[in-house]
Design a protein that fits this description.
By secondary structure, the protein is mainly beta. The chain is built from four helices and 18 strands. The termini are far apart.
Length: 310
């Protein structure tokens, strides 16, 4: 009998399972900013109807009267959480959701494989959505548009990979895990938490919070993959960057041709927020760099906001 066989015979099934889990460690989490550390757009946004904390998209049907914010918490090694709050006094019962769509290139390798979602969730004392209308889900679509995650029933060609509603509302931090198989027809995968309907008038604590979100290959949940703030920020900057140009002009208007590299290569050619001009200056932009092509009309010129999100 070989030495390898002897060694294998000396292991118990549980020890082998643990070794397999350990071998998966390192970049196993397909979610970016699952610990809610990065908030380049700000730590509190009013009815954003778009991305809020980095890589997290928040939407409400018939938009308005909600706030997305980064909160200080202490749960399972996490110090930050994302809160979605129905503003006090709101009387609309309309649903809202927070979600993260993966890129198609990240989703394709998941076809015909099991994936497991883990997250921590709690709700505020005034949360006015019932437990059966609070969904934690892994979803997907047969579309290849890479913009499929939306409010309500999300988008056309939607696929429910796995859905779970808590049996009771978690007023203290509670960990949830769900597993599903990604069908071969699925071209894009995402995760979401959705409050489908509200009742009455919102109080001061009508909110839910999430943190520690991890999506990984396999049918078994493993320990959360903690990343440093610097590493998480670098991953987020593939999709969104704030570039301080760091110069002023002495006389306006003045042609002050400047150029620079981004902090990292972006997912696609980004949109310059505010349009193709800023302070009267026109720019040419690629996935890697920016260049000013025309004069600014003011004496100050500070920051570029660049969006390459899905």
């Amino acid at each position: 009998m070989s030495k390898a066989r002897n060694l294998a015979d000396s292991y118990t099934d549980s020890e082998i399972d643990n070794d397999v889990i350990d071998a998966k460690a390192g970049r196993k989490n397909l979610i970016i900013n699952g610990a809610m550390q990065v908030a380049q757009r700000g730590t509190s946004l009013a009815s954003p109807q778009n991305y809020s904390l980095d890589r997290w998209k928040s939407l409400r049907y018939a938009a308005g009267n909600y706030t997305v914010s980064q909160q200080i918490v202490d749960v399972d090694g996490h110090s930050k959480a994302l809160r979605v709050q129905r503003n006090a006094g709101d009387t609309s019962g309309n649903s809202f959701a927070v979600n993260q769509p993966l890129e198609a290139s990240t989703s394709y390798p998941l076809k015909n494989k099991q994936v497991t979602l883990t997250l921590w969730l709690r709700v505020g004392a005034d949360f006015s959505c019932t437990a059966e209308n609070l969904d934690i889900l892994i979803g997907g679509t047969t579309s290849s548009s890479e913009t499929f995650m939306n409010y309500g029933t999300f988008a056309d060609n939607w696929i429910n990979i796995a859905v779970h509603s808590p049996s009771t509302l978690p007023t203290s931090w509670t960990k949830y895990t769900l597993t599903g198989t990604v069908p071969s027809s699925c071209n894009q995968v995402g995760v979401a938490v959705q409050a489908k309907v509200f009742s009455g008038t919102a109080g001061a604590n009508d909110w839910f919070e999430i943190t520690g979100v991890q999506l990984e290959l396999g049918s078994q949940a493993t320990d959360f993959e903690y990343r440093s703030y610097g590493e998480e920020l670098a991953l987020c900057q593939r999709y969104y960057q704030i570039i301080p140009t760091g110069y002023t002009i002495t006389t306006a208007p003045e042609f002050y041709a400047k150029s620079g590299l981004f902090l990292g290569v972006m997912r696609t050619v980004p949109t310059l927020l505010g349009g193709s001009t800023l302070n009267g200056a026109t720019f040419i932009i690629s996935e890697r760099s920016w260049q000013q092509l025309s004069a600014a009309t003011t004496t100050t010129f500070g920051t570029l906001w660049l969006d390459a999100e899905l």
